[in-house]
Amino acid sequence: MGSLLSQFGLECGEKEVKEEERHLRANDRELNLSYKYADNAIKTSKYNIFTFLPLNLFEQFQRLANAYFLFLLCLQLIPEVSSLSWYTTVVPLVLVLSMTMAKDGSDDMNRHICDKQVNNRKVEVLIDGELKRERWMDVQVGDIIKLENNQFVTADLLLLSSSEPLNLVYIETAELDGETNLKVKQALTVTGKLEDSEEKLASFNGEVRCEPPNNRLDKFTGTLTLKGETYSLDNERILLRGCTLRNTQWCFGLVVFGGPDTKLMQNCGRTTFKRTSIDRLMNVLVLNIFGFLAIMCLILAIGNGIWEYQDGSKFAAFLPKGVNAPFSAFLTFWSYIIILNTVVPISLYVSVEIIRLGNSFYIDWDRKMYYPKSDTPAEARTTTLNEELGQIKYIFSDKTGTLTQNIMTFNKCSINGKSYGELLDFSGQRVEINEKTEKVDFSWNNLADPKFCFHDHSLVEVVREGNPEVQAFFRLLALCHTVMPEEKKEGELYYQAQSPDEGALVTAARNFGFVFRSRTPESITVMEMEELVTYELLAVLDFNNVRKRMSVIVRSPEGKITLYCKGADTIIFERLNPSCSNLMEVTTEHLNEYAGEGLRTLALAYKDIDPEYMADWKLRHHEANTAMDEREEKLDALYEEIEKGLLLLGSTAVEDKLQDGVPQTIEQLSKADIKIWVLTGDKQETAENIGYSCNMLREEMNEVFIVSANTAEEVRKELQTARRKMTPDGTEEPTVKKSRSGLFCLIKMETVVDEPVNGEYAMVINGHSLAFALEKDMEMELLRTACMCQTVICCRVTPLQKAQVVELVKKYKQAVTLAIGDGANDVSMIKAAHIGVGISGQEGMQAVLSSDYSFAQFRYLQRLLLVHGRWSYLRMCKFLRYFFYKNFTFTFVHFWYGFFCGFSAQTVYDEWFITLYNLVYTALPVLSLSLFDQDVNDRWSFQYPQLYAPGQLNQFFSKRAFVYTVLHSGYSSLVLFFIPWAAMHDTVRDDGKDIVDYQSFALLAQTCLLIAVNIQLGLDTHYWTAMNQFFLWGSLSVYFAVIFTMYSNGMFLIFTSSFPFIGTARNSLNQPNVWLTMLLTSILCVLPVVAYRFLRILLWPTINDKVRYKERQNKVLPPAPRRVQARRTSTRRSGYAFSHAQGYGDLVTSGKFLRRTPKSRTSLFSQTDSPLVQTQPQYYNTISEQEEPPLSP
After folding, report:
1. Distances from the Cα of 711 to the Cαs of 335, 768, 769, in angstroms?
2. Alpha-helical segments (H) within 273-387
3. In the 8-state DSSP scheme, what is residue 255?
4. What is the pLDDT of residues 380-419, one digit of tens each?
5. For 313, how many CA atoms within 13 A lie in the half-sphere containing its CB?
């Protein structure tokens, strides 16, 4: 029984105790199991075989309409109340529940399959002194496991030993923080001695005490106790689940956290049941409709009581027990509840699911969102959120792999005052580089990287001619770095770099004839123009975030000592010899051009050093390096001393390649008034570079605020200063609108009102500052300041912080949010947002598996929102407005008839018409409207992104629009009841034979209703297709075919009680006055609608009206002329991204960093050719929009 309850997440008599400290012992499963730590199995699914049916039904009956129909079904089982059969409700209810259940079951089954694949991966575990292959799910806390090169890390491990010197391992953390550059972890010396000896590892019985499971990726505190000695543990000793082991033959680790306790899973967030804003609004509207239905039924019940009291006594003689007026009124109330329930027919929800499914297929089938390079189509992974795609206000995007390809390419350079990398024609005009442009031939260099691409032939010529400045430039690039080489076989070089930037520069030097071949702690070997040269490495002056530069000091074979330095241009220029002033001015112009194109720039300089000075400096450097106090300050002073009087060589420009079409997509979305925030785990400088490359950050902006303080008060001050600069006259306290929402207005809501800002601003905030800003007492200040900015970039953020930022905007802005990413570090953000989009990229499939929609390239987002999202929203709103119109009109006619039938709950229509009205006669026409309609085609949607704005403002369907629909239905029902009633009252046929009866009136009323609602459908349709025409005319044809069949003599004779309207159709429809009545009612129903729409388009045209008019005037949208991007300059530098922390200079010179034996390593820079941007530039037309009148039918 206990195990059964545990399947439902229940424990018998046990209360969950929060873990305060984790204690485990290596190789002691019995002890570790006693603590009941989680095993290594993960679960991302929502249901299991026991919980699926009850939980899914519980979720579905949270939808108020489903609960209502269940109640209605119970009513229909009472014979005294029901005038309709019970199966008229139970069949559609079961159909709706079954369809939704099948869809939810299918989605959860996919999650189960994914979980099973991960849990059944194999890893070697040390059990009873032997390595055995076990499934991931069977790994326990305290086990020792072996990982091999390119394997995923199984759980959160304490690194014990590795194949590398100094017990180092190299890991890639792309799944955690989006960074693809390798990071170094190091085991304790005492555990490193275990090496790969199974005997030593099996006898290892160290005890670990550490922090409980948490989501801090950058922090770990604990201790290891071994043989009475205690050793401190920090994050440098821990390998986290989700990382990948690279360039390391093997390593052993001790499992500290498993499965749901790992930091990766702690950052993933919960799977939530997402509902659209229209879903939530429909719940509220349905509740109001129930209230309205109860009022109508109460009025009719009171009328019945009065009628029975006044007139019922006249019929008492014919009743067995007489008349009880109050009881009759009570029964009549419930009878009318059943009859008038068509105000919310269950077919509404069936239709909604079909529409959503159909619009999801459009996304799956869209060839313009298919990426042939990876054979990846777009996929709508959920079918319930399509219309929400047309209402997005905020987009939260990851950077690495989402906006960028994370591929760095050497693009341009400036050497001795001359710029290289551009192509000019004979007239000196710049030539645009594309796929067909001739590439430089590097066949003369046997060691050149075949993937390297460059187009300026003049640079190769000057290198080969022996130009000393150009050769010194590339010599610097080949020497000044911390790259590690690997040569699998002769001529096949692979570089392992701290950052892709550094690898790109060393690769450039390699192709231009200066090939970095190998290094030792004391030397660097370079192949210079096919001549092998070995330099003595005297010192590495490493990079850090304060210095923003790095230098190496080398001695050439001739004995010449030279310092080579590269770094941010502002830092280098401050340290130049005065003789370089003219060259510096020319280089600055080139740097401005490069920065204007969004390239990452770097200045290069050198200096010859006197041997005697060098010997003295080296001695002082050794003393500073071994000092116990103020070591960093002393080293910085020495570096500052020697890095002066430099001679400028030039500058480099590296391109961090964006995905194709990213700037155009961002520009399009900005035109649609969608705000884009970038949330990245990358460093601030790199994030800024991408911001400028994507045109999210621009020189024209009034100011870009940098928030990087390290204390709460300083962060608050920086945020307030930024806000006051943007709104000098603004209030200190935010303007907050308080409201209530939910079914019974029980949910209190606070909405922060947008504040007007003159000018364009942007904000960049780092992870430390963001942690303070997200605190309860400061989150409002962060939100106010951020929402005033055109662009917000949050860098060095954890996955949980990404989700917190999304939740903050959702909480106080009441806007629809979308999160897009490609790695496991984006999963929590994707789950937190209203819509989650996964990019099928280089960082695995975790983001895709957690997403609602997925595709291969960021540029497809504009089509998803501006085309599919906008159309889905438009179609759903039209559907709901029309559906409520036709059903309220249908029901109101019943209501008016109640005053003429003694409030007896008699139906005004034939019972078969009531059954088939929503299922047959009006189902397919409205579905065709909801699946095929579009106001303008996709090209015009791109041409005018402003068309997206109505969805953000909920203009097409809201409480206000619903009220107008009800009023329109009320007017139509009055026309449809009283015009036929007046036309038929006390009249006879044209031959004078029969007086018009109830059955003839019912036929006329229902025929007028059907014609009127179909005309209204035609007025609402903007885009006619063959299917629309077929369904519309086909439904009317089916109606007439059915009534002639059902009202025939044959049906009456076979089923006398079921088809009482014998001969009504042929007797009524051959009368001219019947057809004239249909014509009159149709004209009177449609006339106000046509008049209002004519006046609205004439006097208050919306942007949709204007664009549709323009589309009609220009049947074919002229192709946009190809635009060559204007060349611009910038004083802002896209700074060079070295590493994200202190460099590896000390390890390089220690000798311990180098391998004991050469091992096979994969290439760090396995680039693939990327096609040029396929998306054509868009031209945008601004259409002024006047104030609109209220929505009406």
Report:
1. 68, 9, 7
2. 277-310, 325-339, 347-365
3. E
4. 988 888 899 999 999 999 877 778 776 788 989 999 999 9
5. 3
Question: Residue 1171 pLDDT > 50, yes or no?
Answer: no
Cβ burial, residue 352 (10 Å; 0-12/13-18/19+): buried
- What is the arithmetic mean of pLDDT over 79-98? 71
Cα 772 from Cα 788, distance rounded (Å): 19
Element (H, E) at 414: strand 404-415
Mean per-residue pLDDT, 630-641: 85
The pLDDT tens digits of the residues spanning 123-180 come to 999 998 899 999 999 999 999 999 998 899 999 999 999 988 778 888 888 777 655 6
CB neighbour list of residue 295: distance below 8 Å, 6 or more residues apart: none
Binding site listing for ATP: 398-400, 502, 543, 566, 600, 680-682, 796, 802, 825-826
Is residue 616 classed as helix, strand or coil in its secondary structure? helix
- Shortest CA distance to 571 belongs to which of 620, 617, 604? 604
Contact (Cβ atoms closer than 8 angstroms) between residue 909 and residue 340:
no
Tokens of 250: 């093997």
Flag whether pLDDT at 311 surpasses 90: no
Tell me the average pLDDT across 927-949.
91
* Residue in this structure with the two tokens 């007489």, named with its chain if needed: 322
Residue ranges of alpha helices (H) inside 400-519 are 457-465, 468-479, 500-511
Which residue out of 39, 108, 398, 935 is catalytically annotated? 398
The pLDDT assigned to 3 comes to 37
Mean pLDDT for the stretch of residues 706-727: 90
Q: How many helices (H) and strands (E) does the chain have?
A: 41, 38
Measured between alpha carbons, how far is 48 from 84 in angstroms, rounded to an integer?
Answer: 38
Closest CA relative to residue 655, chosen from 499, 504, 509: 504
Sheet holding 761-766, edge to edge: 379-380, 853-855, 835-839, 816-821, 392-397, 675-679, 791-795, 761-766, 703-707
pLDDT band at 1189 (very low <50, low <70, confident <90, very high): very low
Binding residues for Mg(2+), as ranges, are 398, 400, 822, 826
Secondary structure of residue 145 in the 3-state scheme:
strand
Residue located via tokens 């070591």: 631
Q: Please say if 398 is a catalytic residue.
A: yes
Where is the binding site, in residues?
398-400, 502, 543, 566, 600, 680-682, 796, 802, 822, 825-826
Model pLDDT, residue 1130: 55
- Give every CB contact of residue 780 below 8 A, 6+ residues apart in sequence: 734, 752, 812
Q: Is the pLDDT of residue 534 over 90?
A: yes
Buried-state track 136-166, b at ≥16 Cβ within 10 A, e below 16: bbbbbbbbbbbbebebbbbbbbbbbbbbbbb
